[in-house]
Amino acid sequence: MSTKRDTQNNDQQANNISSRFEIYLTTLLQTCDWLAHFYSICLLWLVMIDIVGISNTN
Fold first, then answer.
1. CA dihedral 10, 14, 15, 18 (to 10 degrees)
2. Degrees (nearest 5) of the Cα angle 20, 22, 7?
3. 55 vs 27, residue with greater confidence
4. Distance in angstroms (rounded) separating the CA atoms of residues 18 and 26
5. pLDDT value at residue 58
6. How far apart are CA 31 and CA 39, in angstroms?
7. Phi first, then psi: what are they for 21, rounded to 5°?
């Protein structure tokens, strides 16, 4: 038999898990965002170097 207190404990555990998951998800999204910025900057640099290299050979 589950009492009201047991139900509250279960709810609290579920809340802890969901908030932990939210923190994990937020961190993951921020990391992906940072990686995307980093990748685009690297890509820009490569393209610029490529353009400079092409203009130098002609």
1. 180
2. 55
3. 27
4. 12
5. 59
6. 12
7. -65, -40
DSSP the chain: ---HHHHHHHHHHHHHHHHHHHHHHHHHHHHHHHHHHHHHHHHHHHHHHHHHHHHHH-
How many C-alpha atoms does 48 have within 13 Å on its Cβ side?
A: 6
Report the C-alpha dihedral over residues 31, 37, 41, 43, rounded to 10 degrees.
Answer: 80
Give the amino acid at 45.
W
What's the mean pLDDT in 23-47?
A: 93
Does the pTM surpass 0.70? The reply is: no
> Which residue type occupies 50?
D
